[in-house]
Amino acid sequence: MSQPLRVLFVCLGNICRSPLAEVVVKSVAETQGLSDKFHFESAGTGSWHVGGSADPRSASKALEKGLTLENHRAQQITQLNIHDWDIFVAMDRDNRDSLIRMGAKPEQVLMMRAFEGLEAAPDVPDPYYGGAHGFEDAYQMLKENAQGLLDDLLAKYVR
Ligand code: 4NP
Fold first, then answer.
1. CA dihedral 18, 110, 4, 82 (to 10 degrees)
2. I need a labelling partner for 36 at 20 to 30 A (CA). Which of 8, 15, 22, 153 fits?
3. CA distance 59 to 81
4. Domains with residue ranges and CATH for the chain
5. In 3D, which of 128, 57, 117, 63 has the Cα closest to residue 92?
6. Strands (E), 22-73
7. How much is the pLDDT for 159?
8. Catalytic: 16?
9. Is the beta carbon of 22 within 6 A of some atom in ligand 1?
10. Long-range contacts of 59-64 (CB under 8 A, 24+ apart)
11. Do the Cβ atoms of 75 and 50 come closer than 8 Å?
């Protein structure tokens, strides 16, 4: 059997959006018997929260949806570990730009919201500071794109 595709979900702090993206997509993959095709993790481009738990608001959103972030520990993606991954799924354009500055190839970086049939993928807005888009919105955006992302990965990168 071929090696699993190594897919890293990326946001800024790795405590709100990308950990939730990781468990949402992982659970859809599991229900479809695709677990052995992928290795999913998440990371932040910033170092502030390294080693810390998921934001409690993200953790409770996960629980509400039958998922868990209990074992999440934040990690950082840098130019030192950028080559450990096949594909990056960026939550927003800043994350994407950061990944490319670290040495990711543009074609390795997908946008999380690229699967809504829009011409340009919108960002998953950062819910950390509050504001118009909260954690339920973030969850809905992730859920809406999970199947399209998996289909795209299967079609293009998984043998
Ligand atoms: P995330 O949200 O990128 O979705 O994990 C944030 C978490 C923490 C910070 C910024 C965004 N922060 O500045 O500490």
1. -70
2. 15
3. 26
4. 5-154 (3.40.50.2300)
5. 128
6. 38-44
7. 86
8. no
9. no
10. 61/20, 61/135, 61/136, 61/138, 61/139, 62/20, 62/23
11. yes
Task: Give 125: exposed, middle or buried? Use CB within 10 Å, 0-12, 13-18, 19+.
Answer: middle
The predicted pLDDT at position 1 comes to: 61
DSSP SS3 for 6: strand
- Residue 126 is a catalytic residue: yes
Residue 13 in contact with ligand 1 by CB distance below 6 A: yes
| Cross-strand pairs, 8 | 41, 88
Radius of gyration (Cα) for the chain, nearest Å? Answer: 14
Query: Residues in the chain with pLDDT < 70?
Result: 1
Tokens standing for 80? 């030192």
Q: How far apart are CA 35 and CA 57, in angstroms?
A: 27
17 is a catalytic site residue: yes
Q: What would the two tokens of residue 116 be?
A: 């809504």
Separation of 156 CA from ligand 1 center, angstroms? 30
Q: Using a 6 Å cutoff on CB, does residue 16 contact ligand 1?
A: yes
Give 10-32 pLDDT, tens digit per residue.
999 999 999 999 999 999 999 99
SS3 128: coil
Q: Which one of 12, 22, 89 would you pick to mutate in the ligand 1 pocket, going by the greatest count of ligand atoms within 8 A of its CB?
A: 12
